[in-house]
Amino acid sequence: MQSTLSLSFSPSSSAAAVSRSNTTRFSLNTSTPLNLRFCGLRPQALAFNASGNHRSSQLPSRPRSQAISAALSANGSPPKSFDYDLLIIGAGVGGHGAALHAVEKGLKTAIVEGDVVGGTCVNRGCVPSKALLAVAGRMRELQNDHHLKSLGLQVSAAGYDRQGVADHAINLASKIRNNLTNSMKALGVDILTGFGKILGPQKVQIGSSDKIVTAKDIIIATGSVPFVPKGIEVDGKTVITSDHALKLEFVPDWIAIVGSGYIGLEFSDVYTALGSEVTFVEALDQLMPGFDPEIGKLAQRVLINPRNIDYHTGVFASKITPARDGKPVTIELIDAKTKEPKDTLEVDAALIATGRAPFTQGLGLENIDVVTQRGFVPVDERMRVIDSNGKLVPHLFCIGDANGKMMLAHAASAQGISVVEQVTGRDHVLNHLSVPAACFTHPEISMVGLTEPQAREKGEKEGFEVSVAKTSFKANTKALAENEGEGLAKLIYRPDNGEILGVHIFGLHAADLIHEASNAIALGTRIQDIKLAVHAHPTLSEVLDELFKSAKVKAHASIPVSEPVAV
Amino acid sequence: MASSPSPFTLSFSSSVSSTSLLPCRRSFILPIPRGRATSFTVQSKIREIFMPALSSTMTEGKIVSWIKSEGETLSKGESVVVVESDKADMDVETFYDGILAAIVVPDGETAPVGAPIALLAETEEEVAEAKAKAAKSSQSQSSAPPPQPANPAPAISQPSPPPPPPPSAAASDGPKKTVATPQAKKLAKQHKVDLASLTGTGPFGRITPADVETAAGIAPSKSSPAPAAPAPASSAPPKAAAAGAVKPKGVTMTAILAKAAAMALVQHPVVNASCKDGKNFAYNSNINIAVAVAINGGLITPVLQDADKLDLYLLSQKWKELVNKARGKQLQPNEYNSGTFTLSNLGMFGVDRFDAILPPGQGAIMAVGASKPTVEADATGFFKVKNKMLVNVTADHRIIYGADLAAFLQTFSKIIENPDSLTL
Asked: Region Disordered: which residues (chain B) (predicted)?
């Protein structure tokens, strides 16, 4: 918590030499009063225009008339005043998160969008897929006569209307898209429509060539698109990617899903709940390769084996032909290592879920000498872009899927917030190990931190012991009351100092439960400190309570006993 | 290959030919895995170890690993195998001493609950016998596309005598490939059906779960959800009661009796009354006839509400619906609690007459016996044979006296004997 006070006068090049990590100055024209900035105080204290309007959390007055002089700039011919403090290319989740935080910090922000606001997450990703998964979850419950009977319930034949399900997803996407757009507009973020292209340092072209915008800092947040390996012909009807699948234009009897990561897994949950049969095609030797192996094994037992799903592992789909002329979709499988032909599948549809490729074409990166690596924009741990000579490109950042560090929506917005923190004077490095991830199958899977093999490897390399604590959902009252005792939670930790290395949960509401653990990792909380915290009974969160209590840590609690509070 | 004593089993490994010509002769073979009853005789004391039900929801289990191997001696209570259920891995113990003679379901395989997973022999000599049995039963099980039910129903999975006709999607690809859906594969493994022996009826010639189930002799179940609301299927009327006075087409005996009783109750409302708590009695404004129905070893009384107001055909239809619901255990409480008068018909069981016991909360219950041809003397002294049905009413004497009851019965019998009055 700094409390430096800086007064600055315009425009002085000497002041410009101050390093950016301590303070930031906004110099004003002489006709207006000096800007005082107290770093320790809330940004509301910033007065923007001559009338001294306080901009608390209300709408800023528009337009902001003060020009902002440049700090230092080395290359090219820097403009003396910028149109915006911050320009974000891409109005997806990452861009939106960055924009909101930037406005809170008092930056004049604009966001450029060439397609639809909301990007992948809202229109083709998280939002519609969760809508479909909600339907799938309910459908599964209603059809599970066994389960209902054990609760004393019975339901006569449950059915669904495909268009109704698809409409739920589409309507939700458009609602969230509108909410996003309105939230940005209400806060005074300029939404510029058109494809953004970087022309030079701090200069971006929007859409056609006559619209050029300058900004002090630029964030690239252009996201990703589904990756389709070569040999696979996507026709959008019988051979589809997640973009098409989320529109749910039809429910096939038998669909092959290429790729068994979380996207493929979620779709298998949706399709099997709606009555399809699924075949997985996975290049690695085991399904769900990204998960902790123990969780993966249990997940396979619950999510795959009892359902109408079979799989082929260790094979590539070398060629996929869509259905035409009365023939089904044919998939030729070759061995992943030897490349010999192994089998041919004939199915009604194929979903390509082999990952996502960054969308960085046409960004004009060559104008600033940045070369992408497999399409990803190279960045350092502070999201600063690195050019082809290994040097940092000043005032240019890249967040989200486009940089490939962690291709998750909330990771993108966290990275965006980190960048805004840096740009407004506070250094910030996002700890990616504290960012949780979740897979919304039924039951859900979630994780934060390292998997057990990764933790053990790190332990060996750095010389510390690694312990594992496990607890089953069968021991949890609430889970049993719901008759959903199937689940496992796993804590990987250092017994010497109580540091949490990773937590993995498979079970009911796993995606919500993980945050206790991810918060602990983000704040550096140790097990011995958290194990005495009280959890409401009966709730699923007691699963984590059990985990923390069953961990055996040698160190003692470090926080002193706090003052008692009268109740 | 199977040398079971039955003359009907043929060598099924080539899956085909003769069986389809003799569909009706194979009806006796039980499709259940342990149904080779003839091969397990009492003398040999070879016991089976079954796949246990480790939880109430478990339907099949997977063998994680065999703790004991073939040839090892087991004592009662020892853990023999680790089984994975839908919930957890559990050790399974043996209930008998003996020698683990043969493992029927090996590691990693799945078997339904109740299926034999290993054979236990009591003595050394029987080990060899047990092994032979295990080999035989698994072989004949896997190579038998098991039996069809008595009627030569869908033998679609059996191609006709060689050469087998090519599947409908005679694609240009060279070798004929068996394409089976994931569920079909799972079912085939579970019921030990050889996929290569089936011809698929699904699109492009793929083998569907229904094909496998038919081959295994199980009625194909449509387990997937039907998109768009399905119309409830109405099956044929369940009752074909013994002949009463008259039985017009499609109307059951129950409906006739209920209608007649309702009409009689209109004229004698006191019989429709009930004594609520031993002190007061109330006339019921509705005439709801509860009819006793036996289902699955239990008894339930679906109620025909306002039976006097509905005409006979409507009543009959309503009755059919109620019985279906009762069989499907989907009766709502008000559909079986709201009776004011109960009817119990044991005529179909050939009972002449019986006395019913009054259900609490009601005024009267009528017990109907079978209608039998009886010799009768009429007024002129001539004998005639007539169908006679004995009807017996038990009533709560606190509210309904003998005279009321007799009057009711007279009305009732007049209605029944005069069938036209029913259709009023």
From this structure: 130-192, 217-240
Residue of A147, A251, A346 lying closest to B206 (CB–CB): A346
Q: What angle do CA A188, A189, A190 make, to 5 degrees?
A: 110
Q: Which of B25, B276, B397, B414 is catalytic?
A: B397
What contacts B332, CB < 8 A, 6 or more positions away? none
Q: Which of A274, A310, A333 to mutate to test the interface with B (most CBs of B within 10 A)?
A: A310
Q: Do B87 and A474 touch (CB under 8 A)?
A: yes
**Joined tokens for residue B57:** 């929801």
Q: Across the interface, which of A154, A159, A344 has its CB nearest the CB of B229?
A: A159
* pLDDT-based confidence at residue A63 (cuts at 50, 70, 90): very low
Task: Report the pLDDT value the prediction gives residue B154, as an integer from 0 to 100.
Answer: 36
How does pLDDT run across B326-357, given as a tens digit for each residue? Answer: 877 778 888 888 888 999 988 888 888 888 89
What does the alpha-carbon distance between residue A419 and residue B254 come to, in Å, rounded to a whole number? 81
Indicate yes or no: CB of A159 within 8 angstroms of CB of B56.
no
pLDDT digits (tens, 9 = 90+) for A470-485: 999 999 999 999 999 8
- Kind of pairing between the strands at B298-300 and A84-89: unpaired
Nearest to A473, CA basis, from B59, B64, B87, B56: B87
- ipTM > 0.85 (yes/no): no
Q: Which residue of B has its CA nearest to A136?
A: B225
Rounded CA gap, B408 and B333, in Å?
29
Compute the distance between CA of residue A448 and CA of residue A538 in angstroms, rounded to an integer.
24
Q: How many CB atoms lie within 10 A of CB B122?
A: 17
At A481, is the secondary structure helix, strand, or coil? Answer: helix
pLDDT of residue B4: 44
Return the H-helix or E-strand segment holding A254.
strand A254-258
At residue A208, what are phi and psi to the nearest 5 degrees? -75, 165
How close B229 comes to chain A (CA, Å)?
A: 6
- Return phi, psi of residue B102, to 5°: -150, 140
Q: Is B114 exposed, middle or buried (0-12, 13-18, 19+ CB in 10 A)?
A: middle
The predicted-structure confidence for B360-379, as pLDDT tens digits, reads as follows: 888 899 999 888 888 888 88
Quickly list DSSP for B14-76.
G--HHHHH-GGGGTT---SGGG-GGGS-GGG-PEEEEPP--STT--EEEEEEESS-TT-EE-T
DSSP H or E run through A163: helix A162-187
Query: What's the rounded Cα separation, in Å, for the pair A275 and B181?
Result: 13
User: What's the sign of the alpha-carbon dihedral A184, A190, A195, A199?
Assistant: negative
Rg (alpha carbons) of chain B, rounded to whole number: 30
A463: which residues sit within 8 A by CB, 6+ positions away? none
According to the model, what pLDDT value does residue A494 have? Answer: 94
Nearest to B271 by CA among B345, B187, B172, B342: B342
Best of A142, A255, A276, A308 to substitute, by most chain B Cβ atoms within 10 angstroms, is A308
Q: Which domains does chain B have, with CATH numbers?
A: 47-135 (2.40.50.100), 182-216 (4.10.320), 253-422 (3.30.559.10)
Q: Does B201 touch chain A (CB under 8 A)?
A: no
**B243 DSSP assignment:** P
Q: What is the pTM of this model?
A: 0.59
How many CB atoms neighbour CB A536 within 10 A?
9
Q: How many CB atoms lie within 10 A of CB B246?
A: 14
